[in-house]
Each structure stands twice: as C-alpha cells, then as structure tokens.
C-alpha cells in the first residue's frame, strides 16, 4: 500500500524534479527546450543515437504494456467486467497501441534515412526498405479484415461504435505512412529535438501505465482501474502526436540549438523569471489544483447521480465537503471526469467566479477600489462577419495605408456605402449633448447564473442582443460631480471632474472564448488600476459556442471604436495613451483586434500586453507545449480542443490570421505597436507566444517575451492573498513594466 501511496502523488508537478536551492537570480541559463517537457535528471544530449535508443525504449515499453494487459484482461474477472463497462469511452485506446510500435518503427527507419546512417541511400532504396519492413499496403479494407482475424479474441469484446473508431484509426495510420513516404525533398531534414521530447514523454507516461498494471495485479479495485485507464488515455494522446511530428523540420525554432543565430537574436529581449524554489511553487499550486480537483469531482459525481437532470447548491456542497476530507477519492473521480470531460461541468466550474454566491465571498479577498460600474454601449458600425473576414484577408498582402484605392475598398468592407450614408445623416441630426443618452444605456445588476433572459427586454443584461455590448469600468479614483451625485448615471448627466493620468487600459478577458467575464478577472484588474492610477475598461464579449468566431472579435472592435470616438467627451478625461491587454483567449482577441484597427486606420494602442495568449489555433499544427495539456488538471487537452472547436463554429479556416493571429503576414505585422508577451513554462499555450515573438523579432518590432518558470496557464487569476504569493510578486513585475508606458501629465 505504501508503494501505491507514493505512486499516487500529483503528477502535474512531477514532470520535473523538485529543485532545492535553485538559483534565485532571474538570469537563469537560457533553456535547452527539451528540459521544458521532460525530467531534467534524465535529459540526454539530443543526437541521432540517443533518439533511436529512446524510440526502441518506447517500443519495448508499449509491447510490455500490451502483453501485461492481455494477461490481466483474460485472468481477472473484475478487470474484464470493468473493461467491458468502460469500453465505450476507453477501450479503443488499448487497440490504438497495437499500431504504436509500428508507427514508432516507421519513425526509426525514417530518421535513419534522413540522417547519417542511411545518408547514401536513394529515396527509392529507402521506400523499398520501408515496404520490406512493414509491408506495402494497397487496400485498407483488406488489411483491416486480416487485422481483425489475427486479433479476434479482443475484437469480440468491442461494440459496433468502437469497431468503427478502430477502422478510422487504421485509416489515419495509413495516411500517416503515405505522408511520411511522400517527403522526397532531399533538402528536408527533421529536427531531432521534437522526436526526443515526445519519445521521452511516451516513456514517462508508459512507466506510469506499467506501474498501474503492477498495482492492478495486487489489487484490482475500481479506483485503480480508473487510474489505469486515465494514464492509458494520456499515453495515447501523446502517441497521437506522432502523426504530426514529421512537420517539425530543422527550420522550426524548437528544432534549433540554443547557440543558433535565431536564438541568439531572440534572447536579446527574452527573459525568464524564477524567484522561488520548485518546492515553494508546488506547495502554492497544490492549493489551486486541490480546489479544482474537488470541484471537478463534486460536479461530475452529482451529474452521475442525477444522470444530468440538474444541480443544486446543497448537493454540490455535500459532495465538496465529502471530497475535501477524501482527497484521494477526489483525485480518482476527477481523473474519471477528465478522461471524457462533460463540457457543461467544465464551463460551470470555470464560471464559478461569476456566480452570485461565489462573487460575494470572493469580494472579501479582492483589493478595494474606489469605482466599479458597468454599462452597455451601442454598436456604431455593421457587425464583423465571416464574409467580411474573408474579404479583409484578401487585402492583407497588398495592404498599403497610403494607397487610396486599397483603403477605399477596405472601407467598403467595414462599412458599406448605404450604411455609411445613414450613419452620417444620423450623426448630423443629433446634438452632442444628446448623443450620449442614445448610445449608452445603464443597467441594473443582473444574476448571471440565469441563462434564459427575455430577448426583447431593453433593461436586461441580454448578451443575445448584438446592438449592445457590456463593459465593466474600474477606477482607482472616485468620480466627483458638481451636484454631488455618484456613479455612472451622474457621469452621463453631468460633466465629471476627475483627477487621473491621461491614459486608459482596454482589457479583454480570457476563458477559452467559452467562459468567464470581467468579474472573474477583477482580482488583478483592481490591482492594476490602483497601482497604475488609470481607469480600466474591460469588455464582456459574447461567448462561444452560442456566439462563435468572429462575434467576440466584433464586440471588442465595436467597444474600441466607441471609446475612441466618444470616450473622452463622455468621461471627461484624456485618452492620450491606450494600453490594450488580454489573457489567453483575450490575448488572441487583442492581436486580432489590432489587425482590424490597422486595416481601418484607427488610432492604435501605445502598447499591447498579452498573457499566455492563444495565438495558434490549429491543433493539427503541433506545438510541443501541448504536451503540458496532457497532465494539466485545468486546461486538459480535451478541453483545449473543445474551446478551439467552439470558437471556430462554422468557420473552416483555422489558419486564418484573424482566427490564429500568429499566421498574419509581415505586411500587417510591421504596423503593430510595442508588444509585451508574458508566459509560463508549464502552460500548454506557451509555444504560441514564442512563435509570435519569433515573427516579430525577425521584422525588428519592439517586442519583449517574459516567462515565469514552472508557472501554469491562467496564473494571473491566482493572485489572491490566500493562494499564490509567487503570482503576486510576478504581477508586481508586470505592473512595473506597464508603468513604463504611461506618461505623467504635465503640471500646470
């Protein structure tokens, strides 16, 4: 039992060893990137010989797992029954492993061909050797029938749905072979680092599965079986990356060595912060992850019992209390949930900070601030649609702000002539002092937990009404009025006398495009406003999947236009400087919004601050940092894919630069303002920020990339006194950097 206890320690933080007495200085040696994803103690030099050894180790581990599982499933009745019970969701993973050894062997031969061991071979010789080793496959259906015949004992246990899934997997596998064999270009050379990183990860998770199997031999409890299937799924998710890894050629930045010219140039404005030991951070993160684990366990258990009929606060509290005192049970239930996550439960947990009861409790821990209010603004221009995005994309390579023919065409896309004329006449007929009341509407506080809101009620918090977009305003200074009134209502009716710096921040919150709001990010927004002494306007955009791309982008665009056109007049303050900020999905929207502003030739922000941004939204275009999602208890790989698909909606181009900003052409990128990117080395989206940073460095932009070692995704939301003082200190560093871009008003 002691062995089992040690083995069950939190694996999210076990991917790297605890480092005692770590260098506290921020000038830590620049990383060789294999260290980010594997155990530093077992890190070996990346060369062909070591990669081939790792591949062989993978093959041996997978073959051992297959043999051990064959033995268990036919000798242990409990495991066999659980296998049948879970087969709808999990058993297909085991059959995938029948192909993994084959696929790893293909990579082995492929690397030999491309590197020294087979450098004198022609492509035809390589192909001949490949077919001799694996057989030339011309008919998938015929191969499938033979495969079923050779494994009839196991296949008899599968239902029809899983047989279909397995056949699809075989097609993918063969498609992978064809792509591998089609890389005939002699100039193509794969980067070894990605192969080393993924095979090390496979070995690590395979060892977990082997340990699970050993424990199952001693005790085949339901909890141990769930943990086994959980680790088996992780193994298969990692192995699925093998289909994509050949795309990492030697020109990819993560295939290059630390002393390459590219990294030497990028290191000039690349900093890594580490002012804590690994153990200190692990202890702090444990508070956060325990809370998330108990939430996943409580909500999923309640859904299991109620069969999805509904939830209530009493039942949730009961389960939460139970799991609080039974943390091992909570981990097992959470693992079961994450194997096949219910997106409704995940979104409920992500939105907990927006529920009225939690909101009131959290307020106690929030920094105090003088002014918080919310309001809806009326959109000024026609909505940005998919059709407009496609039209704008066609002008990217030829865009020139000085070419009137091009700019006129772009203006027609943004604002068709008939609408433009209507707006012009309307503006001419409205006096300035009356325009405000028609373009801005104040609403009362509405319970966000109610999803059904009257659609035609103009006084409701109605996100389905695209004519109005909600904004939350936070300010460290009290608004003072000549008549003594307080609040935004008085601000509308009377000129406000404010004392503040001539700078504002426009903030776009994160939440995977599917969850959260400005309220769930108030913990750090209040701190920013107080420390920077500027008002912050946080946009409450519409969420997916109900409102997919480009609805959220359009909301942000409309708010920015409104503030630029009318903000100074209505709030009686100068917007001389604008800081645009966003985290995660908000980082994506910040950059995409700026692309629209460039093409429409609108005043740009002075600087953009983005935090762990989602900039490369193509899961097939592999990022190695996605490996972090395999073990991340909050942003797991399945939830990451859900967020991308939800935001994509009916749009079919994941590489479109307004959907995936990292793919924007240099012709637009060159107009971007200063950019500051902040990440964490354990963030599944970490590489998105580095790829974007690389592009901006190449064209000479003012850009800095800062990452905090071992920090996970979403760390700004953990800046609470009772949670993580490490994040609080990191936030202080961020505020210090923001302050550099704010000009003090001249004294009269």
Question: Which helices and strands appear, and what pairs or packs with what?
Answer:
Layout: H1 2-7, H2 48-73, H3 77-114, H4 123-134, H5 140-150, H6 152-155, H7 160-181, H8 192-218, H9 222-240, H10 261-266, E1 270-273, H11 278-306, H12 313-324, H13 327-339, H14 343-350, H15 356-363, E2 371-378, H16 386-393, H17 404-414, H18 417-429, H19 432-439, E3 440-441, E4 468-475, E5 480-481, H20 488-493, E6 496-497, E7 503-508, H21 522-532, E8 536-540, H22 551-571, E9 577-583, H23 585-600, E10 607-611, H24 627-631, H25 637-648, H26 666-669, E11 674-680, H27 686-698, E12 703-708, H28 725-739
Parallel strand pairs: 1-12, 7-8, 7-9, 9-10, 10-11, 11-12
Antiparallel strand pairs: 2-3, 2-4, 4-8, 5-6
Helix pairs in contact: 2-3, 2-8, 3-4, 3-7, 3-9, 8-9, 9-13, 11-12, 11-13, 21-28, 22-23
Description of the structure:
The protein is an alpha/beta fold and 748 residues long. It folds into two domains: 32-257, no CATH class; 366-636 and 647-739, 3-Layer(aba) Sandwich (Rossmann fold), CATH 3.40.50.1820. The chain is 51% helix and 8% strand. The chain is built from 28 helices and twelve strands. It has helices spanning 2-7, 48-73, 77-114, 123-134, 140-150, 152-155, 160-181, 192-218, 222-240, 261-266, 278-306, 313-324, 327-339, 343-350, 356-363, 386-393, 404-414, 417-429, 432-439, 488-493, 522-532, 551-571, 585-600, 627-631, 637-648, 666-669, 686-698, 725-739, and strands spanning 270-273, 371-378, 440-441, 468-475, 480-481, 496-497, 503-508, 536-540, 577-583, 607-611, 674-680, 703-708. It has a ten-stranded mixed beta sheet. A two-stranded antiparallel sheet has the order 5-6. Strand 7 (503-508), helix 21 (522-532) and strand 8 form a beta-alpha-beta unit. The chain starts with a helix and ends in a 9-residue tail after the last helix. Mean pLDDT is 75; it is low at 1-41, 87-91, 426-462 and 480-497.
């Amino acid at each position: 039992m002691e062995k089992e206890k040690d083995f069950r320690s939190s694996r999210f933080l076990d991917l790297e060893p605890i480092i005692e007495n770590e260098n506290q200085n921020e000038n830590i040696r620049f990383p060789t990137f294999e260290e980010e994803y594997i155990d530093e103690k077992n890190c070996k030099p990346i060369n062909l010989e070591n990669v081939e050894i790792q591949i062989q180790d993978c093959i041996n581990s997978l073959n051992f797992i297959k043999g051990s599982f064959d033995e268990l499933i036919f000798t242990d009745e409990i495991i066999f029954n659980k296998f049948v019970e879970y087969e709808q969701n999990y058993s297909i993973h085991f059959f995938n492993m029948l192909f993994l050894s084959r696929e790893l062997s293909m990579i082995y031969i492929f690397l030999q061909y491309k590197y020294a061991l087979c450098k004198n071979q022609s492509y035809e010789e390589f192909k001949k050797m490949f077919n001799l080793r694996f057989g030339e496959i011309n008919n998938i259906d015929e191969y499938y029938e033979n495969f079923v015949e050779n494994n009839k004992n196991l296949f008899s246990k599968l239902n029809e749905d899983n047989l279909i899934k397995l056949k699809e997997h075989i097609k993918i596998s063969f498609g992978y072979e064809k792509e591998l064999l089609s890389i005939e270009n002699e100039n193509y050379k794969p980067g070894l680092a990605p192969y080393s990183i993924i095979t090390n990860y496979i070995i690590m998770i395979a060892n977990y599965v082997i340990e699970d199997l050993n424990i199952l031999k001693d005790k085949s409890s339901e909890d141990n079986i769930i943990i086994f299937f959980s680790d088996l799924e992780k193994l298969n998710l990692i192995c699925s990356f093998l289909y994509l890894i050949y795309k990492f050629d030697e020109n990819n930045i993560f295939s290059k060595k630390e002393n390459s010219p590219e990294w030497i140039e990028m290191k000039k404005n690349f900093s890594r912060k580490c002012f804590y030991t690994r153990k200190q951070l692990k202890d702090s993160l444990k508070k956060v992850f325990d809370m998330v684990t108990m939430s996943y366990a409580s909500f999923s258990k309640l859904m299991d019992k109620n069969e999805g009929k509904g939830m209530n606060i009493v039942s949730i509290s009961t389960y939460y209390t139970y799991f609080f005192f039974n943390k091992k049970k909570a981990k097992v239930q959470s693992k079961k949930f994450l194997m096949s996550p219910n997106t409704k439960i995940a979104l409920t947990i992500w939105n907990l900070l927006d529920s009225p009861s939690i909101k009131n409790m959290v307020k106690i821990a929030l920094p105090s601030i003088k002014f918080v209010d919310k309001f809806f603004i009326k959109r000024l221009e026609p909505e940005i649609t998919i059709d407009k995005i496609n039209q704008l994309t066609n002008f990217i390579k030829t865009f020139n702000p000085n070419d009137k023919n091009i700019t006129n065409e772009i203006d027609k896309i943004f604002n068709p002539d008939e609408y433009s004329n209507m707006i012009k006449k309307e503006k001419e007929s409205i006096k300035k002092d009356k325009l405000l009341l028609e373009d801005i509407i104040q609403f009362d506080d509405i319970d966000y937990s109610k999803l059904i809101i009257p659609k035609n009620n103009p006084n409701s918090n109605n996100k389905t009404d695209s004519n109005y977009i909600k904004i939350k305003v936070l300010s460290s200074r009290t608004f003072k009025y000549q008549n003594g009134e307080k609040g935004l209502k008085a601000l509308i009716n009377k000129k406000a006398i404010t004392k503040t710096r001539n700078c504002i921040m426009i903030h776009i919150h994160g939440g995977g495009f599917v969850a959260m709001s400005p309220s769930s990010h108030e913990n750090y927004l209040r701190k920013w406003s107080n420390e920077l002494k500027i008002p912050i306007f946080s946009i409450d955009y519409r969420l997916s999947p109900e409102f997919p791309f480009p609805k959220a982008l359009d909301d942000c665009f409309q708010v920015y236009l409104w503030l630029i056109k009318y903000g100074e007049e209505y709030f009686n303050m100068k917007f001389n400087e604008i800081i645009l900020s966003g985290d995660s999905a908000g980082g994506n929207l910040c950059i995409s919004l700026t692309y629209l502003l460039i093409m429409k030739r609108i005043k740009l922000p002075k600087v953009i601050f983005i935090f762990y941004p989602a900039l490369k939204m193509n899961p097939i275009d592999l990022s190695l940092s996605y490996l972090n999602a395999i073990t991340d208890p909050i942003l797991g790989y399945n939830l990451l894919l859900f967020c991308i698909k939800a935001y994509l909606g009916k749009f079919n181009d994941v590489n479109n630069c307004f959907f995936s900003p990292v793919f924007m052409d240099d012709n637009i990128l060159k107009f971007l303002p200063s950019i500051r990117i902040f990440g964490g080395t354990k963030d599944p989206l970490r590489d998105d920020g580095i790829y974007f940073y690389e592009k901006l460095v190449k064209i000479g932009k003012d850009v800095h990339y800062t990452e905090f070692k071992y920090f996970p995704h979403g760390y700004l939301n953990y800046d609470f006194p009772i949670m993580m003082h490490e994040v609080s200190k990191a936030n202080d560093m961020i505020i210090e950097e923001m302050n550099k871009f704010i000009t003090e008003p001249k004294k009269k």
